[in-house]
Amino acid sequence: MNERFEVRLRKAVHVFCAGHFITLTDDLCEPVHGHNWLVGVDVEGSPDAHGMVVDFVRLRDVLSTIVARLDHRMLLPTHNRLLDVSTAEVGPGRAEVTIRFRERRWVFPADECVLLPVPNTTAEFLARWIGHELLAALESAGCPLAGRLRVEVDECLGQSAVWHRD
């Protein structure tokens, strides 16, 4: 008999409200808008000596820290070949982020932005970024995930993207 164990984490605390926009084509960039994003995580693996695939509490807390970094922020991609993203000091202790797409230009207070090393702030790339952040944080906490990881980011109820690490 084959057995599989999977831990699923879907908590109300893993919701973040954030603005973004994406380049839809080389010639089209959607308007700035926001979502109440919901993050879910699944971990598949073998139970340890104490019967756990992963410690729920540690997984919850690490994911909460990652999600909190995105909450009430403007999410901006830094690896999009169509966008020019720059940060400049505009006064003592004040910086702004400027984004350009063709003739369009947006300016945001830097402390209200999260610059993400992704090509676009799609649910797909956010799921991957969150997954990598989760893996790195658990590794540095001394509890690396050995099994499969699945991260789902839902941008509006029922519309989600999933990233897997086998």
What does this protein look like?
A hairpin with a 2-residue loop joins strand 7 and strand 8 (94-101). Strands 1, 2, 5, 6, 10, 11 and 12 form a seven-stranded mixed beta sheet that branches. The model has no long low-confidence stretch (mean pLDDT 96). The protein has one domain (6-78, 113-165): Tetrahydropterin Synthase, Chain A (2-Layer Sandwich), CATH 3.30.479. The protein has 166 residues and is an alpha+beta fold. The protein has two helices and twelve strands.
Q: Classify the helix fraction into a percent range.
A: 10-25%
Number of helices: 2
Please give the domain count: 1
* Overall average residue pLDDT: 96
Indicate the topology.
Layout: E1 6-9, E2 15-20, E3 23-25, E4 28-29, E5 33-44, H1 56-70, E6 73-77, E7 84-91, E8 94-101, E9 104-109, E10 113-116, H2 123-140, E11 148-156, E12 159-165
Parallel strand pairs: 2-6, 6-10
Antiparallel strand pairs: 1-5, 2-5, 3-4, 5-11, 7-8, 8-9, 11-12
